[in-house]
Design brief:
mainly beta; elongated; 2 helices; single chain; signal; five-stranded mixed beta sheet; four-stranded antiparallel beta sheet; Jelly Rolls; 15 strands; Conserved uncharacterized protein
Length: 195
């Protein structure tokens, strides 16, 4: 071996020895279904007496301050490379329904809100001067896994997901709603077949 090749080999070996070995990020290997909201039977809006005073609905026809129909919150979770989607049951075979909408708030480990989104049948939703993004089509009903919350959640940090069902006219209700964390590439059809 020539002195030049020997020097290059030693330099390469030294460089590789100094590189910090970072373990790969953990990845989820099996699906997890987390109950988020329990079914609340349909009632007239005015029967729900609690208001969400910090939320404003951009509407001219109804009250701009929505009534709280139901609330739910997950324990601390980690995404671990999974997709986060909503369904009406733990198996992910049923859809869910809501009147008017669900406000999702992503909380960090210190319970600070780090992100928000809404899904349901609603006009623009505002918190302070911030317009809350919609994560699905404007509807009262959704198919299983239709609403994908993955982009809303932190990829590597722990989080909680708070869901608040809000209504501002007529009748309020919600079906059971589950947050389903599934490894990428695994669908609920694969899960049902045991693969």
């Amino acid at each position: 071996m020539t002195p030049r090749k020997l020097l290059l080999t030693l330099a390469a070996a030294s460089f590789l020895a100094c590189v910090k070995q970072v373990p790969p990020a953990p990845t989820r290997s099996s699906p997890q279904a987390v109950p988020l909201l329990k079914e609340t039977a349909e009632q007239e809006t005015e029967q729900f007496t609690a208001l969400r005073e910090d939320v404003e609905i951009d509407t001219r026809d109804f009250s701009r301050t929505p009534h709280v129909v139901a609330t739910g919150e997950t324990p601390l979770l980690r995404l671990e490379g999974a997709r986060a989607r909503l369904a009406g049951n733990a198996a992910g075979t049923r859809g869910f329904s809501v009147d008017n909408f669900i406000l999702f708030e992503v909380l960090d480990e210190k319970d600070k809100v780090v992100n928000r989104a809404a899904v349901g049948f609603t006009d623009s939703v505002l918190i302070g001067k911030e317009q809350v993004d919609n994560v699905g089509r404007m509807s009262f009903t959704f198919e299983p896994d239709e609403v994908d919350l993955t982009a809303l959640l932190p990829e590597s940090a722990s989080f909680k997901l708070r869901a608040t069902v809000l209504d501002y006219s007529g009748l309020g209700r919600v079906s059971d709603v589950f947050l389903r964390l599934e490894p990428r590439g695994l669908s609920h059809e694969d899960d049902l077949r045991g693969h």
